[in-house]
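Chain and backbone:
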Amino acid sequence: MVLDSEVDNLSTHGMFVKTGENIPVSTAVEATIYLEGSSSSLSIELAGTVVRRQEDGIAVNFTSIDLDSFIHLKNIVAINRLDEEKIMDELRRSYRGE
């Protein structure tokens, strides 16, 4: 199934995707996030698992992301949060299972 959806909330460990599709919790998903600017575009490839279903969308916890995609994701989240150290702490906790 291919969905063209909007990411509503994005972090280094997951995202909330607006969709009307009924995707069950525990479903494995693969996603590509496309980012386009006035002079460039890039994409982030990742895999994840649906961890929550709401009326307006799904929450996905990332389970796999390649290094290049992670660097892009980290930079996007950092720019939006303006707190790179907090992001790196979040990432370390995530990978330690905290």
Q: What stands out?
A: Residues 19 and 56 are 6 Å apart (CA to CA). The chain is about 30% helix and 45% strand.
